[in-house]
């Protein structure tokens, strides 16, 4: 599936689905084929104008978004387009307003990668607490820091979660199992928080000031963009860490680079960035206190299969005339977006 297939390489099924990647789980392709959908692939991170040209040439009825920007040009390219579905849950690479303006629902594969992202969050957190990266660098560099090293305990570490959706809940459960204490800020999850063994915090400032690990699990919206800025980084303890397996724009990366440079916090682990892929000269790379992974927290065999199958079912449902699943629907209102005015 590495090459872009042409229309001639497929059967003449009723509907056409464009996937912005070179592969999805074979089970999802089979599911779509069984429901009269041909599946076409567009390489990840191709420029929007290239994707738009493919969508127009194929006359696609649906787009399954994995990687790359789905802007207004892509959304307008095919007059037959009826639905956009994310192979995952984050939709900041889709122009939600442009889709809404055309009456095209944008759906997310809710809950499909929650455990995988939570596992990655915990893995990054433990690597920070146990100083795995600097110790590895020291030993490989011919040093032996054992005589002076004193490690930190996982048990009793206070993890502060910003966001308590499906990923936040999985992360909290794993943190508790390791002996961590958990506090949460999420004004939209009061009922869920009351049911669990979780301490709710009413203010982000209080959470970042108290937590040993600040872990982000909220969507990127107008409200959450640069939620972690220079002021809030200054509130964190110099021994604390920040972990982001959500969306890069939630953190002001320039402010984070300065905080790390000045050792105002002890480290950061990032799986997402404001621009992806990030630039080779990103100021964050100057700090030895940064762990970075390429937005793969939710990319496991199990989660990828679940994401593709859920996305496929959304597509099949809408193409067959059913109403979009309300829980999975992303709208400008739900994401705190505002329609531009002239």
TrEMBL record:
Sequence ranges assigned to domain D-isomer specific 2-hydroxyacid dehydrogenase catalytic in this UniProt record: 17-324
The entry's keywords: NAD, Oxidoreductase
GO MF annotation terms: NAD binding; oxidoreductase activity, acting on the CH-OH group of donors, NAD or NADP as acceptor
Domain D-isomer specific 2-hydroxyacid dehydrogenase NAD-binding: 122-297
InterPro entries assigned to the protein according to its UniProt record, in alphabetical order: D-2-hydroxyacid_DH, D-isomer_2_OHA_DH_cat_dom, D-isomer_DH_CS, D-isomer_DH_NAD-bd, NAD(P)-bd_dom_sf
Record family assignment: Belongs to the D-isomer specific 2-hydroxyacid dehydrogenase family.
PANTHER family: D-ISOMER SPECIFIC 2-HYDROXYACID DEHYDROGENASE FAMILY PROTEIN (AFU_ORTHOLOGUE AFUA_6G10090)
Protein name (Swiss-Prot/TrEMBL): Hydroxyacid dehydrogenase
UniProt source species: Ensifer canadensis
């Amino acid at each position: 599936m590495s090459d872009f297939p042409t229309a001639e390489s497929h059967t003449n099924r009723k509907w056409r689905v464009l996937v912005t990647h070179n592969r999805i789980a074979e089970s999802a392709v089979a599911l779509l084929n069984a429901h009269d959908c041909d599946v076409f692939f567009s390489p990840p991170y191709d420029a929007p104008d290239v994707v738009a040209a493919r969508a127009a040439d194929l006359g696609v009825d649906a787009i399954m978004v994995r990687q790359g920007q789905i802007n207004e040009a892509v959304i307008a390219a095919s007059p037959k387009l009826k639905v956009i579905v994310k192979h995952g849950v984050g939709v900041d690479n889709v122009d939600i307003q442009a889709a809404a303006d055309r009456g095209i629902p944008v759906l997310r594969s809710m809950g499909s990668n929650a455990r995988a992202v939570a596992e990655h969050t915990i893995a990054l957190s433990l690597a920070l607490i146990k100083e795995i990266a600097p110790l590895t660098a020291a030993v490989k560099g011919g040093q032996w820091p054992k005589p002076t090293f004193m490690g930190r305990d996982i048990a009793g570490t206070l993890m502060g979660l910003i966001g308590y959706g499906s990923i936040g809940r999985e992360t909290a459960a794993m943190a508790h199992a390791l002996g961590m204490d958990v506090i949460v800020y999420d004004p939209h999850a009061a009922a869920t928080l009351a049911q669990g063994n979780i301490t709710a915090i009413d203010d982000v400032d209080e959470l970042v000031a108290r937590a040993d690990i600040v872990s982000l699990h909220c969507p990127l919206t107008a409200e959450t963009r640069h939620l972690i800025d220079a002021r809030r980084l200054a509130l964190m303890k110099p021994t604390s860490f920040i972990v982001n397996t959500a969306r890069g724009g939630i953190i002001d990366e320039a402010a984070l680079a300065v905080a790390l440079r000045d050792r105002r916090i002890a480290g950061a682990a990032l799986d997402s960035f404001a621009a992806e892929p990030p630039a080779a000269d990103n100021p964050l790379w100057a700090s030895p206190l940064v762990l970075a992974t390429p937005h793969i927290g939710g990319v496991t065999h199990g989660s990828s299969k679940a994401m593709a199958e859920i996305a496929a079912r959304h597509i099949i449902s809408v193409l067959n005339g059913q109403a979009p699943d309300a829980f999975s629907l992303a709208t400008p209102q739900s994401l705190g977006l505002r329609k531009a005015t002239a």
